[in-house]
C-alpha cells in the first residue's frame, strides 16, 4: 500500500502581505489554477486514493484544508498541538499510516512547492517507491541544480553507486550539507556531485519508525505513548504533553544525516520551493523590461520589478529591482535584495499587536 503525507503547518511569512497567519501560502493560488495544497493533493492522487493521504497541520488550518480538499476524510487531517519541525510531524503521521498497513510506503511531501513537469515527477516518484519497497531504505528526491542557489540545502551523492530502477538512476547519499555561501554553491553545482534537497521523502512506515527509534530516542518514546492513546479520550492531552517535551528538529538533522541506508533519486521536473517573492520570477514570463507583472499595472521606465495586485491600478515610474505586492488592506514595497527579510516587517507588526499579520 502507498500512503501520502503532506506537511502543511508552515506560516509562509516571506509571502506577506498575500500570506497571512490565517491564510498562509500553501492555501493560496501563486501558480496555476489551484491552490498549492490542492495541486499537491492532485499529484498524489495519481498514485494513491485520497483515503490514503494524510495532511499534518495545526488547529488553525484544519477548516481551510476541509474546504479546499472536501473529499479528504476528516480523520486524515492530523492536528499537531504545536510546531516541532518535520521529525515530529513525520513521526506522528507514521503512527497513522502504520494503522493502514505497517509496511505501507510513505510518500512525504511539503504542501507548498511548484512542480511544472508532473509526468516526469510521477516517474521519479515511482522509482523512489520501488527503491523504498526493495528493503530498509530511506529514499529522498534530489533536484538537479540549475544555478548556485544559497537558499537550499544540498545532498552529496556517490556517482559510483548508481543503480537503475524503473529506468532512473538511484544513488547512495554521501552526506547532507547546509545552505552554502555563494562561492561554495558555485563549486557544488560545477562538481556535478550535488543535488538540491527537495524535502521529499519515501520509505516504508516501519523503516522510518525504526530509524527514529535508533537515532531519536526521545521522539520514539513520545510516539510510543501517543500510539497507546490514539483511540482514547485523552489523546489531545497526551499529544500536548508529549509535544511539549520534544525538541524542535528536522527529519534531515534527526535521522537522514545520521542514517547509513539513505538513497537519492535525481530529478529534473521544474521544481521550485517558492520561498519568497523573487521566486515568482522563475514561474512567470517576464516582459521586455524584465518585469513580472500580475494585475492592473501601468509601468513606465520600470525594469526588473515584480508587481502583483488586483483590480486597483498600480502605476510605476522610474524604478528598478523592486517588489510591489498590493492586497485589499496592505501594500508591500521592497527592494529585491531585501525580500528575504520580509519577516522583519512581521516582527514589527507583532510588537505593535497589529491586525495585519
TrEMBL record:
<dbReference type="Pfam" id="PF22640">
    <property type="entry name" value="ManC_GMP_beta-helix"/>
</dbReference>
<dbReference type="InterPro" id="IPR029044">
    <property type="entry name" value="Nucleotide-diphossugar_trans"/>
</dbReference>
<protein>
    <recommendedName>
        <fullName>mannose-1-phosphate guanylyltransferase</fullName>
        <ecNumber>2.7.7.13</ecNumber>
    </recommendedName>
</protein>
<dbReference type="GO" id="GO:0004475">
    <property type="term" value="F:mannose-1-phosphate guanylyltransferase (GTP) activity"/>
</dbReference>
<dbReference type="InterPro" id="IPR005835">
    <property type="entry name" value="NTP_transferase_dom"/>
</dbReference>
<keyword id="KW-0808">Transferase</keyword>
<feature type="domain" description="MannoseP isomerase/GMP-like beta-helix">
    <location>
        <begin position="295"/>
        <end position="349"/>
    </location>
</feature>
<dbReference type="InterPro" id="IPR051161">
    <property type="entry name" value="Mannose-6P_isomerase_type2"/>
</dbReference>
<dbReference type="InterPro" id="IPR054566">
    <property type="entry name" value="ManC/GMP-like_b-helix"/>
</dbReference>
<dbReference type="GO" id="GO:0009298">
    <property type="term" value="P:GDP-mannose biosynthetic process"/>
</dbReference>
<comment type="similarity">
    <text>Belongs to the mannose-6-phosphate isomerase type 2 family.</text>
</comment>
<dbReference type="GO" id="GO:0005525">
    <property type="term" value="F:GTP binding"/>
</dbReference>
<keyword id="KW-0547">Nucleotide-binding</keyword>
<keyword id="KW-0342">GTP-binding</keyword>
<keyword id="KW-0548">Nucleotidyltransferase</keyword>
<feature type="domain" description="Nucleotidyl transferase">
    <location>
        <begin position="4"/>
        <end position="288"/>
    </location>
</feature>
<dbReference type="InterPro" id="IPR049577">
    <property type="entry name" value="GMPP_N"/>
</dbReference>
<dbReference type="Pfam" id="PF00483">
    <property type="entry name" value="NTP_transferase"/>
</dbReference>
Amino acid at each position: 500500500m502507498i500512503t501520502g503525507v503532506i506537511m502543511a503547518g508552515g506560516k509562509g511569512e516571506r509571502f506577506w502581505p498575500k500570506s497571512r497567519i490565517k491564510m498562509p501560502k500553501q492555501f493560496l493560488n501563486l501558480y496555476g489554477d489551484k491552490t498549492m495544497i490542492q495541486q499537491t493533493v492532485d499529484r498524489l492522487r495519481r498514485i494513491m486514493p485520497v483515503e490514503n493521504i494524510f495532511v499534518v497541520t495545526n488547529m488553525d488550518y484544519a477548516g481551510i484544508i476541509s474546504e479546499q480538499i472536501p473529499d479528504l476524510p476528516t480523520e486524515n487531517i492530523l492536528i499537531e498541538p504545536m510546531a516541532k519541525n518535520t521529525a515530529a510531524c513525520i513521526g506522528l503521521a507514521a503512527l497513522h499510516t502504520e494503522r493502514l498497513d505497517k509496511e505501507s510506503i510513505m510518500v512525504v511531501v511539503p504542501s507548498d512547492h511548484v512542480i511544472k513537469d508532473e509526468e516526469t515527477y510521477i516517474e521519479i516518484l515511482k522509482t523512489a517507491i520501488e527503491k523504498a519497497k526493495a528493503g530498509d531504505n530511506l529514499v529522498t528526491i534530489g533536484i538537479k541544480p540549475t544555478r548556485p542557489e544559497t537558499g537550499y540545502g544540498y545532498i552529496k551523492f556517490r556517482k559510483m553507486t548508481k543503480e537503475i530502477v524503473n529506468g532512473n538512476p538511484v544513488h547512495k547519499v554521501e552526506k547532507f550539507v547546509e545552505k552554502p555561501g555563494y562561492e561554495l554553491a558555485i563549486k557544488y553545482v560545477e562538481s556535478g556531485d550535488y543535488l538540491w534537497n527537495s524535502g521529499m521523502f519515501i520509505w516504508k512506515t516501519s523503516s522510518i519508525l525504526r530509524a527514529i527509534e535508533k537515532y531519536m530516542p526521545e521522539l520514539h518514546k513520545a510516539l510510543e505513548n501517543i500510539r497507546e492513546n490514539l483511540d482514547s479520550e485523552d489523546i489531545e492531552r497526551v499529544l500536548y504533553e508529549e509535544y511539549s517535551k520534544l525538541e524542535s528538529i528536522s527529519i534531515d538533522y534527526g535521522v537522514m544525516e545520521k542514517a547509513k541506508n539513505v538513497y537519492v533519486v535525481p530529478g529534473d521536473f521544474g521544481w521550485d520551493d517558492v520561498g519568497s517573492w523573487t521566486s515568482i520570477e522563475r514561474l512567470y514570463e517576464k516582459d521586455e523590461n524584465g518585469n513580472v507583472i500580475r494585475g492592473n499595472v501601468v509601468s513606465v521606465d520600470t525594469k526588473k520589478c515584480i508587481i502583483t495586485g488586483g483590480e486597483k491600478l498600480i502605476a510605476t515610474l522610474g524604478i528598478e529591482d523592486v517588489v510591489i505586492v498590493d492586497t485589499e488592506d496592505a501594500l508591500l514595497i521592497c527592494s529585491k535584495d531585501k525580500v528575504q527579510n520580509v519577516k522583519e516587517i512581521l516582527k514589527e507588526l507583532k510588537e505593535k499587536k497589529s491586525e495585519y499579520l
